[in-house]
Amino acid sequence: MVVRVVRAHERSFAFSRSEVHHGGMSTFTGSSEPAAPLSVATRWLDRVLLMEVAGEIELINAPRVESAIMEAFDERPAVLILDFSGVTFLSSAGLAVLVRSRNRAGDDIAFRVVVDGPATARPIQLTGLDQEIEVFSTRDQAVAVDAGS
To answer: What are the φ/ψ torsions at residue 109 (nearest 5 degrees)?
Structure first.
């Protein structure tokens, strides 16, 4: 199974079961387990970088999501919004990615997460991450904070 991660500026990554391709470089993930369905797409809204994630964020896919998020931070947006509306499963590995992402954002980059439904909202609430991360129920709400709405 190959999962394609598409970035707004026409750069994409293809993930297979046992390796991660970054440009022309491959990195072995050490797993022979098939990856669950996953897609990540990014687009700019002025100085806001919106990352739409869909599928399952579990032990195999979490490093792939984290890699995409860390690369997004390297682009130095004023705000990074992770839209998890399309996420159907969020494991503890995915929650750990959120914690590391929040830490990476620091005080320089506003970090927000959009969750819609129990598959994402419940684990975030049960772990108390909603007290550490700005969580919104819609993408429009997360974007509107900067528009003064």
So the answer is: -125, 125
Question: Kindly report the CA angle at 111 between 68 and 57, in degrees rounded to 5?
Answer: 45
Q: Which residues, other chains included, contact 68 with Cβ-Cβ below 8 Å and sequence gap of 6+?
A: 5, 13, 40, 42, 51
Q: What is the pLDDT of residues 80-132, one digit of tens each?
A: 999 999 999 999 999 999 999 999 999 999 999 999 999 999 999 999 999 99
Q: Apex CA 2: angle with CA 28 and CA 91, to 5°?
A: 75
Q: Count of H helices and E strands in the chain? A: 4, 9
Tokens of 80: 């990074």
Structure tokens, 53: 């994630």
Q: Is 148 exposed, middle or buried (0-12, 13-18, 19+ CB in 10 A)?
A: exposed
The token pair that represents 72 in the structure block:
């997004």
